[in-house]
């Protein structure tokens, strides 16, 4: 083992192995970032599934951006050359159209592998979404181990739905669930009237978490916020100075606009020369294949101790395995700051490194409620606790108590009159449904009748507030080849394989960006009548990804 961090990772993994023989139920795995949660939780799941003869291990991840990395790591351990069938299935889900044709139904994913990597969006859709896709997968949630990675990313409006669904699976469907994170949300402290989780203290797989966080402490959080905020020029100067002093630096921002502006300014300041790129940009406007290439280059430079500055949105926080000497984080939720800290001194090569928290002077996040509320509550904790450890479980509990109190009225999935015909909640529609105008008034008859509004709930339910539209981009030769083959393919089996490959070349777009691209006639269906789209290659920037403006000249095909 290289150092103390590796010893602690090994201890966490062994503790998970010992706990695998315990009875089925609901468990926590609360481990500091960089503590080896992925392998430790999978080790637990494999031995627990063997002990209790369970059918599947389902690994639920908050974002599609890290499915590739985690699935690849587990596949390298489980799969061997010559295996008749793959052990690990990656289900990115973003290329499944909302309205399915018979062809797309045949080519959709049904979760029939032993180990399934999917997203929180798809887990929630399987339980609460309308249509036929959820029911085709829901049975796989029973008699299984479900690992929820970075559980703090659970959508706020789905908290009570999630808690009730998970209680049903663990109490009645033979399922074991593990909630994994370094920043454990207090799901046992939400309103019990609407559904909260009851998790005994002895069901913490990592044991004494307070002691573990002390032993794995590798960074200090420095609150550098100032009245009026930091200008773009000041943040760029700080980042460049950190590279010059410490060799490399990661800056994590809250918006794509800030990422692009800061990248352009830092690239000018660093004067990238003959030794290759020094400044890198990462955001979800880049397709996964493109991001993977950039991350591989970043890791290579870090390994070779070459100068490096990376400007990224928060996509790099959730489980991406990189190790910087210095991190600068825009003020956001304390859980996000803790996740950012996990990219700093990750392997314990330095005694203690610094994570600088700064507040930009001009940031448009009023419509980003999760970030804005998290920022305000984190600011409160940072100011209250002075110089104490902001990454401790005690600090995180305090932060989430403030955050959940502020947003308690949103946890039942509130509905407008336009959505449901009356002001109500989705939790009500799926439970006792007291506002149902057709409700059976006779208590005895009501016992034997369904009062719920299942169809309405299924039609309304969306696990994210702003549903996105996926588009396949023609990045590098493989991306172009996939688009060409999809446009020519009519066989469902061939389409299924192509869509699996296309997941690495797709980008999820918010409605405002999608509408601009549609207006520019830059997106096209791969087949007439299908809802799977590709993007003109002229609208994909080699540095910033999808662009609503023309950024590339279209290549002339050679015949």
In short:
The protein is of the alpha/beta class and 559 residues long.
Describe the protein in words.
The protein has 559 residues and is of the alpha/beta class. It has 21 helices and 20 strands. The chain has a six-stranded parallel beta sheet with strand order 1-6-5-2-4-3, with helices on both faces. A hairpin with a 3-residue loop joins strand 19 and strand 20. Helix 9 packs across helix 10 (256-270) and helix 19 packs antiparallel against helix 20. The longest helix is centred in the first third of the chain and has 16 residues, at 4-19. The relative contact order is 0.12. Residues 102-107 have low confidence and may be disordered.
Annotate the secondary structure layout.
Layout (H helix, E strand, L loop, with lengths): L3 H16 L6 E5 L6 H16 L3 E6 L5 H12 L9 E3 L11 H5 L8 E5 H9 L4 H6 L5 E6 L9 H14 L3 E6 L27 H7 L3 E5 L8 H15 L1 E5 L3 H15 L8 E4 L5 H16 L4 E5 L13 E5 L3 H8 L11 E6 L10 H16 L8 H14 L7 E2 L1 H4 L3 E2 H5 L12 H5 L6 H7 L8 E4 L3 H13 L3 H11 L3 E4 L1 H9 L3 E3 L7 E3 L4 E2 L3 E2 L13
Parallel strand pairs: 1-6, 2-4, 2-5, 3-4, 5-6, 7-12, 8-10, 8-11, 9-10, 11-12, 15-18
Antiparallel strand pairs: 13-14, 15-16, 17-18, 19-20
Helix pairs in contact: 1-2, 9-10, 13-14, 19-20
* Strand arrangement across the biggest beta sheet: 1-6-5-2-4-3
Report the major sheet. 6 strands, parallel
How large is the count of helical segments? 21
Distance between the termini: 57 Å
Helix content: 25-40%
- Give the overall silhouette: globular
> What percentage of amino acids are in beta strands?
5-15%
Radius of gyration: 24 Å
How many strands?
20
The pLDDT mean sits at 87
Low-confidence stretches: 102-107
Which structural class matches the secondary elements? Answer: alpha/beta
């Amino acid at each position: 083992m290289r150092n103390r961090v590796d010893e602690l990772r090994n201890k966490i993994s062994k503790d998970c192995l010992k706990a695998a023989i315990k009875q089925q139920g609901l468990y926590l795995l609360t481990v500091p970032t960089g503590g080896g949660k992925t392998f430790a939780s999978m080790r637990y799941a494999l031995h627990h599934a063997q002990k209790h003869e369970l059918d599947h291990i389902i690994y639920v991840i908050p974002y599609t951006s890290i499915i590739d990395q985690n699935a690849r790591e587990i596949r390298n351990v489980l799969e061997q050359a010559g295996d008749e069938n793959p052990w690990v299935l990656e289900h990115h889900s973003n290329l499944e159209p909302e309205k399915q044709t018979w062809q797309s139904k045949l080519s959709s994913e049904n979760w029939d592998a032993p180990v399934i990597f999917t997203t929180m969006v798809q887990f929630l859709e399987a339980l609460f979404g309308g249509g036929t896709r959820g029911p085709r997968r829901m049975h796989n949630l029973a008699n299984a181990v479900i690992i929820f990675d970075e559980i703090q990313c659970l959508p706020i409006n789905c908290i009570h739905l999630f808690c009730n669904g998970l209680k049903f699976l663990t109490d009645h469907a033979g399922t074991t669930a593990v909630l994994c994170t370094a920043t454990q949300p207090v799901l046992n402290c939400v309103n019990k009237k609407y559904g909260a989780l009851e998790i005994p203290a002895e069901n913490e797989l990592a044991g004494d978490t307070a002691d573990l966080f002390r032993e794995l402490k590798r960074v200090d959080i420095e609150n550098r916020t100032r009245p009026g905020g930091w200008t773009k020029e000041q943040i760029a100067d700080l980042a460049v100075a950190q590279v010059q002093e410490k060799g490399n630096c990661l800056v994590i921002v809250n918006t794509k606009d800030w990422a692009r502006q800061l990248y352009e300014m830092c690239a000018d300041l660093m004067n990238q020369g003959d030794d290759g790129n020094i400044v890198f940009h990462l955001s979800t406007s880049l397709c996964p294949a493109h991001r993977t290439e950039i991350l591989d280059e970043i890791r290579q430079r870090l390994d070779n101790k070459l100068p490096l500055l990376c400007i990224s949105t928060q996509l790099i926080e959730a489980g991406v395995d990189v190790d910087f000497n210095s991190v600068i984080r825009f003020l956001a939720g304390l859980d996000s700051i803790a996740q950012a800290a996990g990219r700093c001194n990750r392997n314990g090569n330095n005694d203690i490194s610094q994570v600088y928290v700064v507040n930009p002077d001009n940031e448009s996040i009023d419509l980003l409620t999760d970030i804005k509320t998290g920022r305000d509550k984190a600011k409160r904790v940072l100011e209250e606790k002075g110089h104490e450890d902001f990454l401790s479980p005690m600090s995180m509990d305090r932060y989430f108590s403030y955050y959940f109190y502020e947003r308690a009225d949103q946890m039942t999935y509130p509905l407008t009159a336009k959505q449901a015909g009356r002001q109500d909640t989705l939790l009500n529609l799926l439970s006792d449904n007291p506002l149902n105008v057709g409700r059976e008034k006779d208590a005895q008859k009501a016992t034997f009748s369904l009062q719920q509004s299942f169809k309405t709930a299924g039609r309304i339910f969306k696990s994210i507030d702003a549903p996105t539209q996926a588009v396949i981009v023609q990045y590098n030769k493989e991306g172009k080849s996939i688009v060409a083959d999809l446009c020519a393919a009519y066989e469902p089996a061939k389409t299924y394989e192509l869509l699996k490959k296309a997941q690495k070349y797709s980008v999820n777009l918010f409605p405002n960006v999608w509408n601009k691209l549609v207006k520019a006639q830059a997106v096209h269906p791969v087949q007439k009548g299908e809802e799977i789209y590709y993007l003109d290659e002229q609208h994909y920037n080699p540095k910033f990804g999808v662009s609503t403006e023309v950024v590339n000249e279209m290549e002339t095909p050679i015949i």
